[in-house]
Amino acid sequence: MLRKEYNDLLTQTDPGTSMGDMFRQYWVPALLASELAENDCDPVRVKLLGERLIAFRDTEGRYGLMDEFCAHRGVSLWFGRNEEGGLRCPYHGWKYDHTGQCIEVPSESAESGFCQKVKLRSYPLIKVGDVLWTHMGSEENRPPEPAWEFANLPPEQTYTSKRWQECNWLQAMEGGIDSSHVSFLHSGSLKTDPLFKGAKGNQYNQNDKKPVFEVVESDGGLYIGARRMAEDDHYYWRITPWVMPSFTMVPPRGDHPVHGHFWIPIDDENCWAWSFDYHPTRALTDKERQAMIDGYGVHNQYVPGTFRPRQNKDNDYLMDREAQRRGETYSGIWGIAMQDASLQESMGPIVDRTKENLVSTDNGIIMARHRLRKACEALRDKGIQPPGLVPEHQQVRSAARVLPPDQPFKDAMKDDLTVRPGVKQTSV
Amino acid sequence: MMDLKEVFFDPNHPTLLGSCARAATAEEARFRVQYPNSRTRSSRIFALDAGAAEAMYAITEDPWNGAHFLTLVDRGPVDPATTDARDLPLAHPDGTSADLTEETDGADVVVLLATSGDNEGAAEVIAREAFHRHIMCAGLALGSGKSDASVDRVVNSMRRFATVLVVARDNDYIPAMLTALRA
């Protein structure tokens, strides 16, 4: 249970809200780099943290992210012409550069300097990995560029996708740190999904449906350890890192690529579920990459030409009760990503947490909410910067390992949970 | 690649707003049945040492849903092999003595609070009683201002007994967790 005032605090991210201010401290993923693939390409509408923006890449390759609407008459600049170093409104020809500065008002004399007085709000847009990131907070508090491992590897080792999820960011993110649902909701996919199946660890998942949890605070967020029985009284540990505010990683399986997510608010009732896969020491195979494109693992299929999942609330997520009865899927929904998304969206756009009945195994979620609230209040009331901004906090990995019963994961797996360039992930 | 459209999708399948997943809107949320969907839980919170008791006493006056707060009375180390549940020295916040078997009778959740690793024996007695009664046992190690080694000692003292073990850096987590659990 979470009190309404705290639920509101954590779920509202529009400008002027406390959580919105907190999200604006971070570099957040805004677009796939492929959405602005070349100079003078089509502009893209972007909505982030309740702000409608337009992204474009100018003639010189500079990325711009600014207020979607022309300062003149409020026309959407999505209709604009991306040409000769700026985005020109097609209505009366006002033109803006990548910083949002108006650089031409054709109706006014160039010598008047009028255009200098017009500037759209803009945010930096930088390419790190195959993602374009933005920082929507003040320039003086701009953190170092994103240091996440997945975004800083050669392109042949990574794959990133994003999908529109039709619910608040927090309930989506909470699914990412809820280890106990895997043995149920994803049990069918563990046996069949090409990016999951075949790992020894899957057997432990299947055989022990009552994991024991350890939740440990880290400097940047949490480590959530789920412990299941292995052979000889040893424990199979799966460790999920969470870095504030919304980065999670899935513990790896075998030599499959490692995957994880960002959950970024579009507005209070929608979010982007960013999903990445990477292998720290080798290129993804053609089969692996194709499986990701085909929607396996943490990825999904799309309504063509959109980032909306092909399985969505308009078609009941293509529920297949027969597949459920045959044991191919636990919920009747195909694909790990949509198994999660379908249930999270079914909660409603912003789940009413005053009605929930958490149990002690939900302590990862409880602690994450607690830390988010504390960080949010510390920023609001004292101006203290939240955790997760500095590269050291971002140098985390998920890990899975079998340990003797007397070894705490936090010590025994310390190196496994830290990025080590050139060293492969620790997995079972 | 699985072709979902061919395998699953029936374009003639009727999907009315109120009878399909599209009903997950804010407008539809107001039609959710309003009623209390759970009964009051019986939560038992045990402070295993003086530091944990101090942190616990700071919140016992808050309006809880019937949670019982209990402290271990310091009479030296508890040997779990020779200590029966009824013999564990426990006290209510007002100083009156408490009986572990009575306290755990009908309880839904047991929470162990510890700031030191000194009372592993007592933790075992409480956890053993909870286990016999099929009660979920959670451990909360409070690490405020403590070294890693010191926190490890606290955690190790509870690891064998807790189904969930949380290491919290600040004592504010106690009320946050208990509120979340409807204690």
Automatic annotation (TrEMBL), chain A:
Membrane-spanning ranges: none
Keywords: 2Fe-2S, Dioxygenase, Iron, Iron-sulfur, Metal-binding, Oxidoreductase
Domain Rieske: 27-134
Entry keyword Metal-binding: yes
Keyword Signal belongs to the record: no
One GO molecular-function entry: iron ion binding
Protein name: Phenylpropionate dioxygenase-like ring-hydroxylating dioxygenase large terminal subunit
Species: Roseibium marinum
TrEMBL record, chain B:
Positions of region (Disordered): 81-101
Protein name: Uncharacterized protein
Biological source species: Roseibium marinum
Top-level taxonomy: Bacteria, Pseudomonadati, Pseudomonadota, Alphaproteobacteria, Hyphomicrobiales
